[in-house]
Amino acid sequence: MKNRVVITGLGVISSLGNDIDTFWNNLIQGKSGISHITQFDTSDYAVKIASEVKDFDPLNFIDKKETRRMDRFAQFAVAAAKMAVSHAGLNIDDRNAERVGVYIGSGIGGLATLEKQHRVLMDRGPRRVSPFFVPMMIANMASGIVSIQLGAKGPNSAAISACSTGTHCVGDAFRILQRGEADVMLAGGAEATIMPLAVAGFSAMTALSTRNDEPEKASRPFDKDRDGFVMGEGAGVLVLETLDHALKRGANIIAEVVGYGMTADAYHLTSPAPEGEGAKRAMEMAMRDAGLAPEEIDYINAHGTSTEYNDKFETMAIKGAFKDHAYKLAVSSTKSMLGHLLGAAGGVETIISALAIKEQILPPTINLENPDPECDLDYVPNEARKTRVRTALSNSLGFGGHNATILLKEYEEK
Fold it and tell me: Residue 304 and residue 284: Cα distance in Å, rounded?
């Protein structure tokens, strides 16, 4: 028998707020967190917009000395993790530390540290490179530092799978709990790559929106006038527990994790497989894992990047997986408001899916003004929708052909 797994705590750092209530209220109001980049001078850049975290003070979560040894992405991870643990009312101490694990990934890791230390190397020579350079840069360090900060001694790892990272981390943590290898897992993703090198690189691929004059309207998934995604940053961390453990300590249960699917396109470095074949199989796998029929799914938080091929092929994948029911379920892309948080996207979007179930309201896809005829599903356009939400599925589709789907359900005693 597999353990049932539930969500009991949420923590988020984002352009729409650095606490769950602010974040959720802004999201369901359809606000955009996208604005002009402030972290560096974009005068020479074709792309001048991003979804930056605002008003973040790491000292609210981390000792001043320790912050100097952490890249921004790791600071985000620690902040979101501590927030999630507090939200869950969880105490980690010597009695339970070995049964509490961490599975937090990053698609890119400490890019700010890499850029800074490369400049040091070029300008001042190898002896001036920081001894903290490597541990600050490597992408697994979000998970490592969170375990150190919280004293969590259980299973510890980090998926690194581009834009699927956060969802893979949640799904892999779900499996650890199902198998009984831990009682509690902190899972999700963190990213902080709004840096010159990343913006230049994604821009060179023509992957980013150049709607610089209207930042808040730049991310427009499923809209005919979309011209690329908008980079975002932040972190999303969830507390997952076995149901038995949650019930024993009287935890507040937000939703249940019931299914996980992961596939590969085996097709192209950056483009999704034709007709979203890999994404279709990931959704089908998650539903089989949960023992749910397509007709039992109420909502999909789409990967929905606002790029030409993703939006079209993900729509085709949904139609392939859900057949006629595809036109009866609701789909929305919260990247229309948050931008694309890369490795953190899956963590944040799993949080959104859990809140949709808890609050019985669907966040909108904003900026859907001129729907693409090839994207003809119900994308909850422009305004949040109060409705019955029993199940929610969240997709993440990453460069390299990584596909991950997590499936949540309203918690019910059985």
Answer: 18
CATH 3.10.310.10 fits 259-409, yes or no: no
Q: Which amino acid is at 366?
A: I
The pLDDT tens digits of the residues spanning 33-55 come to 999 999 999 999 999 999 999 99
CA diameter of the chain: 64
Separation of alpha carbons 263 and 278, rounded Å: 6
* Structure tokens, 27: 């999201």
316 SS3 class: helix
Higher pLDDT, 250 or 271: 250
Q: Which of 90, 163, 198, 255 is catalytic?
A: 163
Contact (Cβ atoms closer than 8 angstroms) between residue 105 and residue 159: yes
In 3-state terms, what secondary structure has residue 156?
Answer: strand
Secondary structure E strands in 327-370 = 330-332, 361-362
| Position 339 pLDDT exceeds 80 | yes
CATH number of 5-248: 3.40.47.10
Alpha carbons 96 and 156: distance in angstroms, whole number:
15
Domain borders along the chain are: 5-248, 259-409
Q: 223 phi and psi, to 5 degrees?
A: -90, 140
C-beta of residue 337 within 8 angstroms of C-beta of residue 16: yes
What local confidence, expressed as pLDDT, does residue 145 receive? 98
Same topology, domains 5-248 and 259-409? Answer is: yes
Residue 239: per-residue pLDDT: 98
Q: Is 163 a catalytic residue?
A: yes
> Using alpha carbons only, how large is the chain's radius of gyration in Å?
20
What is each CA distance from 291 to 104, 258, 285, 295, 365, in whole angstroms? 27, 8, 10, 12, 29
Question: Which residue, 398, 30, 48, is CA-closest to 191?
Answer: 398
- Measure the CA dihedral 263/168/9/27, to 10°: -70
**Residue 173 C-alpha from the chain's centroid:** 15
Instruction: List, for residues 219-238, the tens digit of each pLDDT value.
Output: 999 999 999 999 999 999 99
Q: Which of 231, 186, 190, 236 shows the shortest CA–CA distance to 72?
A: 190
